[in-house]
């Protein structure tokens, strides 16, 4: 069995689209079709049901997919084992990170990793969680690091860090019911004060809404003044007095220390989220494996 044909089959089985498969593999659609046809002829069986809009695995195709994933996992394991025995870790590693992680957490880890593995060339793409997962699916990145409670069945997913979300306000925050001694606001104030928040599709936005629901708050009742696409813009908007926000504690340490922003609390409300590493277990490189081990050891 031709391993290249099996790779094309594996990508097509995951994408259910000849056009998407050709983009991922950088080959023509006709080449994809030809290799699938040759594989079907070799195995004397139909692997896909084809329609004008999409392709879908047959029951025989499902069996081959299970076997193909085991084969690729074993090939990758052997490659990594041989590489680790014969030479130092080297090569390219492209990481995708959601904004909070990419701007405020991972740069410190990358610096320490680079000291230990100087022969790995690192590249980090920063975007919202939804777009990062799309890049992982299309193989534009090797590893994804996001904050999300979503489950992606096609990928391995590991928790590596817990983060706290905090409510921030301008330093000169004044409100009739505000307890300035204890920095408390009431639940009603949280829902009525103008709030600046991340855009839909952001892992931070998703987690905030889920955490509020878990604490008996309806996120639809938030008085959303602005939706912004990055943390720095949100902090600047809050500093200027436009409203409050809910943001990662890791991303606002400097401002709290310099007293350009103040932290508020709602009694009994605790907002936390988890950060995950997400990757294709069948196709992880030696630099990718080494970085996963490094970051999990770094935070544990």
Map the helices and strands.
Elements: H1 3-15, H2 18-25, H3 29-43, E1 48-50, E2 55-57, H4 59-86, E3 91-97, H5 99-116, E4 120-126, H6 129-137, E5 143-147, E6 156-170, E7 184-185, H7 187-192, E8 194-198, H8 203-214, E9 223-228, H9 231-239, E10 244-248, H10 253-258, E11 261-266, E12 271-279, H11 286-298
Helix pairs in contact: 1-2, 1-3, 1-4, 2-3
Domain HTH lysR-type: 1-58
Protein name: LysR family transcriptional regulator
Pfam families: HTH_1, LysR_substrate
Structural class: alpha/beta
CATH topology of the largest domain: D-Maltodextrin-Binding Protein, domain 2
Radius of gyration: 24 Å
Any guess at the CATH architecture of the largest domain? Answer: 3-Layer(aba) Sandwich
The percentage of residues in β strands lies in 15-25%
**How confident overall, as mean pLDDT?**
87
Q: How many separate helices? A: 11
């Amino acid at each position: 069995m031709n391993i290249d044909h099996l790779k094309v089959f594996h990508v097509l089985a995951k994408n259910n689209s000849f056009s998407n498969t050709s983009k991922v593999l950088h080959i023509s659609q006709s080449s994809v079709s030809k290799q699938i046809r040759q594989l079907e002829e070799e195995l004397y069986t139909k692997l896909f049901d084809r329609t004008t809009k999409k392709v879908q695995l047959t029951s025989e195709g499902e069996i081959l997919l299970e076997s193909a994933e085991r084969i690729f996992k074993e090939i990758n394991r052997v490659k990594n084992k041989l590489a680790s025995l014969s030479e130092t870790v080297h090569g390219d590693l492209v990481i995708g990170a959601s904004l909070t992680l990419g701007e405020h957490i991972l740069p410190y880890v990358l610096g320490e990793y680079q000291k230990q593995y100087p022969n790995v060339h690192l590249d980090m793409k920063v975007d919202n969680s939804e777009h990062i997962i799309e890049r992982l699916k299309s193989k534009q990145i090797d590893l994804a690091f996001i904050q999300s409670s979503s489950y992606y069945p096609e990928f391995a997913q590991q928790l590596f860090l817990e983060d706290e979300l905090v409510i921030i306000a301008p330093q000169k925050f004044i409100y009739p019911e505000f307890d300035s001694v204890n920095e408390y606001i009431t639940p009603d104030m949280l829902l009525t004060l103008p709030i600046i928040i991340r855009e839909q599709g952001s892992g931070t936005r998703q987690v905030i809404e889920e955490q509020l629901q878990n604490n008996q708050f309806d996120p639809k009742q938030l008085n959303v003044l602005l939706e912004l696409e990055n943390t720095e813009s949100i902090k600047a908007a809050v500093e200027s007095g436009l409203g409050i926000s809910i943001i990662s504690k890791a991303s606002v340490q400097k401002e709290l220390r310099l007293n350009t922003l103040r932290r508020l609390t709602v009694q009994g409300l605790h907002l936390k989220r988890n950060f995950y590493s997400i990757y294709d277990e069948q196709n992880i490189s030696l630099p990718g494996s080494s970085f996963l081990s490094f970051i999990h050891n770094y935070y544990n």
